[in-house]
From TrEMBL:
InterPro entries the UniProt entry points to: Glyco_hydro/deAcase_b/a-brl, NODB_dom, Polysacch_Deacetylase, TAT_signal
Region feature (Disordered): 27-52
GO CC annotation terms, alphabetical: extracellular region
UniProt-recorded name of the protein: Peptidoglycan/xylan/chitin deacetylase, PgdA/CDA1 family
Signal peptide feature range: none
Key word Signal present: yes
BP GO terms, sorted: carbohydrate metabolic process
Positions of the NodB homology domain: 242-453
Subcellular location: Secreted
Gene Ontology molecular functions: hydrolase activity, acting on carbon-nitrogen (but not peptide) bonds
Amino acid sequence: MSPRKPYSRRAFLHLGAVTLAGAAGCTGRGETNTSTPTPLVDTPAPAVGATATDETETQLFVEDDCELDETEFDDPLAVGFDSRHRLGCQGLLFDDFNDLGRWGTYDGSIDVGTPRVAGGYAAQLSASADDQRAWVYRRFDEGIDLSEYDLSLGVHSGTGSTRVEQVRLQLLAPDRHNRVDMWQPINGVKGWTRLDFGPTEEFGSPDLTDVREIRFQTWVGQGSEGVCTIDELRVTPKLDEGGVILTFDDIALSQYEKAFPIMQEYGYPGVAGAIPWLSEDADRIDVERLTEMQEAGWDIVSHPQAPHPLPSYSAAEQEGLICETKQWLIDNGFESGSRFIIFPYGKADETTLDLSAKYHHLGFLGGRGASGLITGPMTVSRVNGDDLETTDHILRMAKKYRQIAVVMFHTLDGGGSRITSAEFRKTMERIDELGLRVLTASDLWKMQPAVAE
């Protein structure tokens, strides 16, 4: 069993090289607040490299009540533990939103949200039809160093007509003209999930050693209302270097005939999402060819696609699809890859996530950016490989910010919005130029310090 906190507070001390402080008031959007902030602690944190006492360490971070869940499943197809509980405890708790006095608003409101089982409350972000969005911030007048850390957040997208579809995290480093934006679409997920953030846009020349403000926006749109809940802003240490995972949905034959040979030239492995009931169709990759790809280092993973997204079906029907696909993978020699799932149509609800976490360790969904260490293992973000410009941009962000970009492909036949094999080759060339490591789902799983194999 891995330890409850894979990283000690002492390992994170340089995050608090200055006093952390927040202000409930506002002096203008993105402008530096010159007023005296309300400090979180009465004494400044130690300088980098200084020896800290436990008292000083608790000043830097919120007391963390995250606990590992050692749930055991009776089903022989199930994995040993729920990865959401294990990986969700990675890193340190930066803000639990129990002190909303640290947060101000530009648009909408922030209020006490739902109670947590372990005590305290989450925070509810609300936007009226006049607000367009909920937009909240927390200031650090002396600046904090986030250059060696990634951030993640627990989010409940809400329900009904007020459901939120996107969350944006912004780091002003040190101001709105020099900042990093991190967009995360959540329209494919219903219920609670954790979002691991990675840069999607840069403005100016941001210096993440001097972050003066953290912002969250939940975009709604003019004339609409939006309500969502956020909880547990966590920080995890950055990876040593960035990388990329190349995923392929639906086992289309062009993936074997066109993508596979190009990737072989570069020595790149991939991740293929298999639909068992299509594997014998003439335009799909059969078991023999999937085995060849696995022998070349690929993961062959679950992709239980039916005519509609999984949340369209009952819990029993969803579990049947998930189990049938995993059993097929095991029966055909793909047991290693069977630990991972690519969600069909990029859709999942709480039932889908609960069931998938019972049978799989990682789940790949939609998304927009890259990520570092995973705290939300069932909602690993992917960028659309058919969008060459966005994919190239996210690959560069992954390289610069030492994160893992997961790219999604379907067919390579061209036509419509799909890329051609020549365009696919350009992306492979770009990966080679950037010097990014090409990983599999198995590699990503092994990289998580909280994992106990």
